[in-house]
Specification:
361 residues, six-stranded mixed β-sheet, four-stranded antiparallel β-sheet, 18 strands
Length: 361
């Protein structure tokens, strides 16, 4: 019995499928088909091809696509036995092979399609609505491989309510009277708090941009939180780089190990396509600490502007930084999953499953 699935489990399930079979999506209206080319054990990646025969396409001409190890780990971390999981909520707008991963798992013997009811909060009332497509892992009732079966779970509902992160006590430090500016700043601060809390759950401490120190959360300024670093000047990781602390002072969030000797991530939070300022701040930090150039530089941005962020961050002047992308929905999922105190998974490796690589142009 699996209490917590791993990337190895998911790769093994898919590897057990017949490589000579063409697999159909669960939606009968989807005419695209999938072929498994290779499964690299133990943790992936999985190589597939997709084509739409109704358009005259063939697998011979189709380009190979990859279901990465990061995808497998991220989904595995969200799965629990007999617990419905919505693939789109796990990945947000990330990864264009997420539906293929869902489809292949549904053709294995332990995964079923299901449509649990959905609790929706309307004003003071909560109602049960028609559910969306989910998958459910049922180890105790294996089915024949190669077919998709819907599991009837009429007595089960899922809720969006317990996924919400509440920020009723979040107070901003700006003086703008424009509602749009206030809302953008508030969302920025929300994501910042989630990053601080997620880092703390992984045993890390966060530096927060100095101009955000006075933001109040739960009656406490961010700089007063136990999870927030008070000063970067004496941090062991930056010793020998006298100008690096000043270069990093306005970076939204920098994660350090508690002993201050390592920097697992440097994160800039952006709301629009104008991400150049954040990229430039991170690059200046890298220039002042050149021996630390292999650190993980990340743009955190809304799911809906993912493509624009990729274009900006892939520009040649930022190529040395090996930029990663972390969506807002991924931050929320990372926070919620990190609160479970999942055992047996390396925290940094777990975090990297939420990141997407941005390839320089």
């Amino acid at each position: 019995m699996y209490s917590q699935l791993s990337a190895t489990n998911l790769a093994s399930f898919i590897d057990s499928l017949d490589k000579n079979t063409i697999y159909e999506y669960p939606n009968s209206k989807t005419r695209t088909r999938i072929q498994i080319i290779d499964v690299c054990m133990p943790e992936g990646p999985i190589t597939i091809k997709r084509c739409d025969p109704s358009k005259g396409e063939s697998f011979d001409d189709a380009k190979p696509q990859t279901i990465s190890s990061k995808m497998l780990w991220r989904l595995a971390s969200a799965l629990k036995p007999n617990h419905p999981v919505n693939i789109d909520r796990v990945f947000g707008a990330s990864y264009n092979t997420r539906s293929a991963l869902e489809t292949l798992l549904l053709h294995t013997e332990f995964f079923y399609l299901c449509y649990p009811g959905r609790l929706e909060k309307i004003g003071p009332n909560t109602e049960v609505k028609v559910g969306h497509k989910h998958i459910i892992f049922d180890m105790e009732n294996p089915k024949r491989k190669g077919i998709i079966i819907e599991k009837k779970i009429n007595d089960m509902v899922v809720t969006e309510i317990d996924r919400e992160v509440r920020f009723d006590s979040l107070l901003l430090n700006h003086k703008s009277t424009k509602k749009v500016d206030i809302e953008l700043d508030r969302r920025h601060a929300q994501i910042q708090v989630l990053l601080i809390k997620a880092a703390a759950s992984m045993g890390l401490i966060s530096w927060v941009a100095s101009n955000d120190h006075s933001i109040i959360y739960n009656g406490q300024r961010l700089i007063e939180m136990d999870e927030v670093m008070k000063d970067m000047d004496s941090t062991p990781a930056l010793q020998g780089y006298s100008k690096a602390p000043e270069a990093g002072r306005l970076i939204d969030c920098i994660w350090f190990t508690k002993d201050g000797k390592k920097i697992p991530a440097i994160l800039e939070i952006e709301h629009s396509t104008g991400v150049t300022s954040g990229l430039t701040r991170m690059k200046n930090f890298m220039i002042e600490a050149p021996d630390l150039k292999d650190m993980t530089y990340i743009i955190v941005a809304p799911d809906e502007i993912r493509e624009q962020v990729f274009r900006k961050a892939a520009q040649p002047q930022f190529s040395e930084m090996n930029i990663k992308y972390l969506s807002y929905s991924a931050v929320e999922d990372l926070y919620l999953l990190s609160q479970r105190k999942i055992q047996g998974i390396d925290n940094i490796k777990f975090f990297h499953t939420f990141l997407e690589e941005i390839i320089p142009v």
